[in-house]
Amino acid sequence: MPLLAVTDQTFEKEVLAAQGPVLVDFYADWCGPCKQLKPVLEQIAVELAGRLKVVQVDTEQNPYVTQAMQIQALPTMMLIQDKKLLDRMSGFMDKRALLERLKPHVPAGPAGVEKMDPQRAKLAVEAGLITPVDIRVPGDFSRTHLPGAINLPPDDHADPAASLPPQVTKVLLYGRTEDGVEPIAKALATAGKRTAILEGGLLAWEIAMLPVERGALRRIDD
After folding, report:
1. Per-residue pLDDT tens for 33-67?
2. How many H helices and E strands in the chain?
3. Catalytic residue among 15, 23, 34, 164
4. Is 34 a catalytic residue?
5. How far is the C-alpha of 101 from the C-alpha of 89, rounded, in Å?
6. Which value, to the nearest 10 degrees, does the dihedral of the CA atoms of residues 63, 68, 72, 75 take?
7. Mind spelling out the 3-state secondary structure of 132-179?
């Protein structure tokens, strides 16, 4: 997932006037640690979609913002919300360390709904502890989906619990990303289904190079 490039001209709109927290990565093409950091940021952007905005500023091309934010080392990351600096980090950080640093400032998922990272979700699916439920349209589902997944197409999103078979008691809900998943997860949790959201959706699953299935549609009533 490409990160949004922010410039001297768009910094005010995309960062300072944004709703919610924004993680700004200041980098340069010649910076080795910056290149190492980029895939980490891309994964976090996918996993925290809708809760955290991740953008990049090329310091070579945008001297005004670079100087205004007093950037002296690369990479430098700033977490900004409502024009306030919440945190500042310099140097490469691995995914786990960066997520821990961000955790106090990033909104949690919906109440009563668990979050599962792709690796943990894979183990739960393989053990038969959870049923993957794909909320995309049938055509997208049939092209690629999690192993053993069933399809809950948009027509069934208004009352998802009624559309699932009674034997499905624990649900791993996902879409292409996390966009649009939380309201459905909340409805399922309210109806008594044990519900988890796949962090980052199918995209994060594929980035982790986990197995997928393709082909015929498996319907809910199969």
Report:
1. 999 999 999 888 877 777 889 999 999 999 999 99
2. 9, 10
3. 34
4. yes
5. 9
6. -80
7. EEECCCHHHHHHCECCCCEECCHHHCCCHHHHCCCCCCEEEEECCCCC
Residue with tokens 């300072």: 16
Integer Cα distance of 85 and 82 in angstroms: 9
162 to 130, 168, 188: CA distances (angstroms): 18, 11, 9
CB of 49 within 8 A of CB of 177?
A: yes
- Of 166, 171, 164, the closest CA to residue 130 belongs to 171
What is the spatial order of strands in the sheet that 53-58 belongs to? 4-5, 53-58, 22-27, 76-81, 84-90
DSSP state of 91: S
Q: How far lies 36's CA from each of 8, 75, 91, in Å? A: 24, 10, 10
| Stretch (H or E) spanning 124 | helix 118-126
Clarify whether 93 is annotated catalytic: no
Per-residue pLDDT tens digits for 161-198:
999 988 888 999 999 999 999 999 988 988 888 899 99
Q: How many CA atoms lie within 13 A of 88 on its CB side?
A: 9
In residues, how long is the chain? 222
Could you tell me the strand order of the sheet in which 131-134 lies? Answer: 114-116, 194-198, 170-174, 131-134, 150-151
Q: Out of 3, 4, 31, 168, pick the active-site residue.
A: 31
- 219 phi and psi, to 5 degrees? -85, 165
Q: What is the CA radius of gyration of the chain?
A: 19
Q: Give the global pTM.
A: 0.57
- Calpha distance 200→185 (Å, rounded): 14
